[in-house]
Amino acid sequence: MHLIDSVMSMPHAFRKMTEFDEGPDRAWLVAGLTHAGWTANEIAHRTNCSVRLVKDIRSWDMTQMARFALEQITVADARYHAERSAHSQTRRELVLSRQEIQRVREQMDRLVKKVCAGEPIAKCYRGHPIIEGSTYRSRNRDYCRECNRENTVAYRARKRKPSDLQCHAICVSPPMHTPSVASAS
After folding, report:
1. Residue 54: is it exposed, middle or buried by C-beta count within 10 angstroms (0-12/13-18/19+)?
2. Nearest to 104 by CA among 124, 127, 131, 138
3. What is the predicted pLDDT for the residue at 185?
4. Which of 6, 31, 89, 121 has the most C-beta neighbours closer than 10 Å?
5. Closest to 8 in 3D by CA, of 56, 47, 55
6. Mean pLDDT value across the chain
7. How far is CA 184 from the centre of its chain?
8. Is the pTM above the cut of 0.85?
9. Whole-angstrom distance, CA of residue 111 vs CA of residue 109
10. What total number of domains does the chain contain?
11. Which of 13, 28, 15 is nearest to 58 (CA)?
């Protein structure tokens, strides 16, 4: 892979194709550059050799095997990154779930203490119990954290699924205003 990367990063290869050992190095280099989408002319120009030599190397069985290996590496790399991303998301969700469980436990403990003490439990307009830690203060007003959570979830759900009207407005381009139309009006 380093050989391919070094040839791709320089305007001309540090070695001519004919200086490489006839066999694995040439096959790997041509297979890698072909896999990257390079034409035979581009490979020949970059490695300072003939197009005929590049086409000859492409026809080798070893080059075909190297191309197959590079394709498999690309597929495996994509799977690895997708799986790693999924694991990262799962870990993040696990941390958030544990934090939510801890928050609910603490809230239940405070609620039980209040009930055991015989104190009345105030509720917000949606019916959530208002106890220590279940509200926050903003602009000299108290807000229910649970209501805020529900509002946030509903907002994010609306933002994820655009309505048909929004999609139509995005997909349709505005009418063109040409000079001939402008002069006629």
Report:
1. buried
2. 131
3. 44
4. 31
5. 47
6. 81
7. 50
8. no
9. 5
10. 2
11. 28
User: Is 124 in a helix, a strand, or coil?
Assistant: coil
For the cut 70, the answer to whether the pLDDT of residue 3 exceeds it is yes
- For residue 126, the enclosing domain spans 121-170
Residue ranges in the chain assigned as alpha helix (H) = 2-9, 24-35, 40-47, 51-58, 61-116, 145-160, 164-171, 179-184
Q: How many CA atoms lie within 13 A of 122 on its CB side?
A: 8
pLDDT in tens, 117-164: 888 888 888 888 887 778 888 898 888 888 998 899 899 888 887 654
Q: How many residues does the chain have?
A: 185
Q: What would the DSSP string read from start to end of 15-41?
A: S-GGGS-TTHHHHHHHHHHHHTT--HH
Of 48, 67, 86, at which residue does a domain stop? 67
| Angle at 34 (CA atoms; ends 33, 38), nearest 5 degrees | 75
158: left (phi over 0), alpha (psi -120 to 50) or beta: alpha
Q: Given the DSSP bridges, would you call strands 135-138 and 129-130 parallel, antiparallel or unpaired?
A: unpaired
Q: What angle, 0 to 180 degrees and rounded to 10, lies between the N-to-C axes of helices 24-35 and 61-116?
A: 60
Going by their DSSP bridges, the two strands 141-144 and 135-138 should be labelled as antiparallel
